[in-house]
Specification:
By secondary structure, this protein is of the alpha/beta class. The protein is 53% helix and 8% strand.
């Protein structure tokens, strides 16, 4: 799998992890950072920082091209300096993300081995890595075994949490200051467990690996920090809602996700053509809903904008106005989603306006024209009932159940997507 180039990760971080990305820039340029939140996406600043990181972190770096191969060497060097065994790093097929995961595992394992069982429990709780799935006996396990359990149970979400806490911890210990996103209470508490005697013990071991040099004092937190951004981007629980403005897409956003288009503010960086919303407005919430106008826009800038958001989507809800017929662009949209290997469901909306005698034939036609494998890929919906017909809202529960099914396939918890909010449901009609 080809992963995003370093400068692309940094650019995306400006959009989706602005507080974390701000801290990354301050790690290299504390007094006059190249970028701060509010400036939008600055591709030039991202490339400059990528070059700085690669130049500082690789003794053999001679060019000003900071591609993945160059950055992979930087991560490899940092991991070796922090004590990751060479045989672990150099296994056949090990890639950049493998290096980052092994580095996070090593750092977390070292920390874990210096904590009491109560401190371990507190750390997991503050990192939101607890639950009925966690075997209490894990608190007595070694750092290596505990880390393996967490990665198996929580996957990329565990990597992200580890990276966030480790980056903050390393910045405090090596640079003398915490990261900007430490305002997040959970991260602050988790780092609080590590500061003090434990921090001095662990950091003393790390400093013995030549991290006292000025370059690696910056590069090491930066590498951990970039791992946090990448893992957040790659584990983001995003769902796309696709459809024309007249399809009832806004009503779908309101009924299924509780998003009021008129009052909700889209995330910074989203445009009039493609808007992203968080379900819960917290810094570490992973629930994103992305509103797409479609994937067939002739404006290159609009298409590029949509392409960037597509990578974050775990599944797609395609809203089609049942009264307007089925178009070729609807089939093209489904084909593009299918090519990405993402699950999707078609909401044939405004179903209350279709005569009952015509409904079965229209549904069958939709399956054929859209190239669907089964009628079950269609949910007939009434997201915004016509008041004259006195029909209730329909299809919301079914749409939410489909989302929950996708999350289950991804082995993701409902909480990871909806944050502290429960999915909004309406009562089913008898």
């Amino acid at each position: 799998m080809k992963h995003k180039e370093l400068h692309e990760v940094i650019s995306l971080g400006m959009d989706y992890c602005p507080s974390i990305t701000e801290s990354l820039f301050k790690t290299f340029n504390a007094d006059d950072p190249l970028w701060v939140p509010g400036r939008g996406v600055d591709a030039n600043a991202a490339k400059q920082l990528a070059d700085q990181i690669c130049e500082a972190g690789s003794h053999s770096f001679t060019s000003m091209f900071s591609g993945n191969e160059d950055y992979k060497k930087v991560v490899h060097n940092v991991a070796k300096k922090l004590g990751v065994k060479a045989e672990e790093l150099d296994k056949d097929g090990s890639g950049l993300v493998d290096y980052e995961t092994k580095l996070m595992s090593k750092l977390f394992s070292d920390i874990w081995d210096n904590l009491s069982e109560q401190e371990r429990e507190d750390l997991l709780s503050d990192m939101d890595l607890t639950g009925k799935e966690i075997d209490p006996s894990m608190l007595a396990k070694s750092g290596v075994l505990a880390t393996q359990v967490l990665l198996k149970q929580f996957g990329g979400f565990a990597t992200y949490r580890m990276a966030v806490v480790m980056a903050n911890f390393l910045s405090r210990q090596l640079l003398g200051r915490g990261l900007s996103f430490a305002a997040n209470a959970a991260v602050t508490r988790a780092v609080g467990v590590l500061i003090g005697p434990v921090g001095w013990i662990v950091t003393a071991g790390w400093l013995a690996h030549d991290l006292a040099g000025p370059a690696y004092r910056k590069v090491t937190p930066a590498v951990v920090y970039i791992a946090a951004i990448r893992s957040k981007l790659e584990t983001e629980m995003g769902f796309g809602v696709v459809g024309l403005g007249s399809s009832g897409k806004d009503a779908c956003l309101k009924q299924v996700f509780g998003i009021e288009e008129a009052s909700s503010s889209p995330l910074a960086g989203s445009t009039d053509s493609c808007q992203a919303y968080r379900l819960v407005y917290e810094r570490d919430c992973t629930g994103l809903v992305i509103n797409f106008p479609g994937f067939n826009d002739h404006d290159p800038q609009v298409s590029e904008n949509a392409e960037g958001y597509l990578a974050l989507c775990r599944g797609f809800i395609i809203v089609i106005d049942a009264t307007s017929g089925l178009s070729g662009s609807d089939a093209e949209t489904i084909q593009k989603i299918r090519e990405r290997g993402r699950p999707f469901v078609v909401c044939l909306n405004k179903w209350d306006l279709i005569r009952p005698a015509d409904r079965e034939a229209l549904r069958a036609k939709a399956v054929e024209k859209l190239g669907l494998s089964s009628p079950e890929q269609i949910i007939t919906t009434v997201f915004d009932p016509d008041e004259r017909l006195e029909e209730p809202v329909q299809g919301v529960d079914e749409t939410i159940d489909w989302i929950l099914g996708v999350l289950d396939m991804e082995h993701a918890t409902t909480k990871a997507f909806w944050g502290s909010m429960e999915p909004k449901k309406v009562k089913k009609d008898k």
